[in-house]
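Lab notebook page, bench 4
Experiment: in silico fold of construct C2
Operator: M.H.
Input chain length: 91 residues
Purpose: comparison with the prior construct
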Amino acid sequence: MRKSKLIELLMAMPGNPEVFIWNGLVDDWMRISEVTQQTLISYKDGHHEWMVNDWIPEEKVKTLCKTKKVLMIEPEPRKKSSFGRCGNLDY
């Protein structure tokens, strides 16, 4: 979703309601902890990862992959547990 579309949806809501994230993995909601701008690296082989530090030399980034700035919405931990096919999940 583009930032402009998110802003449009939020502005259309009356009042000042709280905004939550739906965690479909555990079928529960989560509060938003923070929103940050991150760099997403898309490698030519289709692999993606977040660039959380500057350990990748810039010349390597330019030749091996594409980067773009994205907003990362991070949920606030609820200190709950759920159980699924993968075992226990703490969220």
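Observations: The chain has a mean pLDDT of 81. Helices lie at 3-12, 58-64.
Next step: discuss at group meeting.
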